[in-house]
UniProtKB/TrEMBL annotation:
Membrane-spanning intervals of the chain: none
InterPro entries: Ribosomal_mL54 (IPR013870)
UniProt GO molecular function: structural constituent of ribosome
Keyword Transferase carried by entry: no
Protein name per Swiss-Prot or TrEMBL: Large ribosomal subunit protein mL54
Any one of the GO CC terms: mitochondrial large ribosomal subunit
Gene it is expressed from: Dyak\GE12161
Keyword Transcription assigned: no
Entry keyword set: Mitochondrion, Ribonucleoprotein, Ribosomal protein, Transit peptide
Localization of this protein: Mitochondrion
Similarity remark: Belongs to the mitochondrion-specific ribosomal protein mL54 family.
Native source organism of the sequence: Drosophila yakuba (Fruit fly)
Length: 132
């Protein structure tokens, strides 16, 4: 009997006891530290670093092409055409300041659209001030 219990003791030490000790370790291993820079964490997750976009300095390209118009990896930017090839209404667009409401004609559609937009903006600001 003694030899039989000794065999059970040895079997227990070799097979059963080590597996009991490892039962508590069913969690994932810690990740190895990354060799690259650590990203800072903000309120919404890691902060993405801004990409520096190269600025075109070639004067010939700036005069003849619309730089940045090609968003695909292949191809090139749109070439600028002579003014005669563009429609006439393009040259009448207002690219200056926004015309104030006082200077607009009250009988025009643009006046009433602007008035409605300003009223909606004012109501939204006032609704933000209300508690409930």
């Amino acid at each position: 009997m003694t030899s039989l219990t000794a065999v059970f003791q040895m079997a227990r030490q070799r097979f059963i006891a080590p597996s009991i000790g490892n039962c508590a370790r069913f969690y994932a291993a810690k990740p190895a530290p990354a060799a690259s820079k650590k990203k800072k964490l903000g309120k919404l997750g890691p902060i993405v670093e801004k990409k520096v976009i190269p600025v075109e300095t070639d004067a010939n390209k700036l005069v003849n092409y619309v730089c940045g118009s090609n968003y695909l990896k292949a191809g090139e930017d749109v070439k600028i055409k002579p003014d005669a090839e563009y429609p006439e209404w393009l040259w009448t667009l207002n690219t200056e300041r926004i015309i104030p409401l006082d200077e607009l004609d009250p009988n025009s559609k643009q006046y009433w659209r602007r008035l409605r937009k300003l009223a909606l903006r004012r109501n939204n600001q006032l609704s933000k001030l209300k508690k409930f």
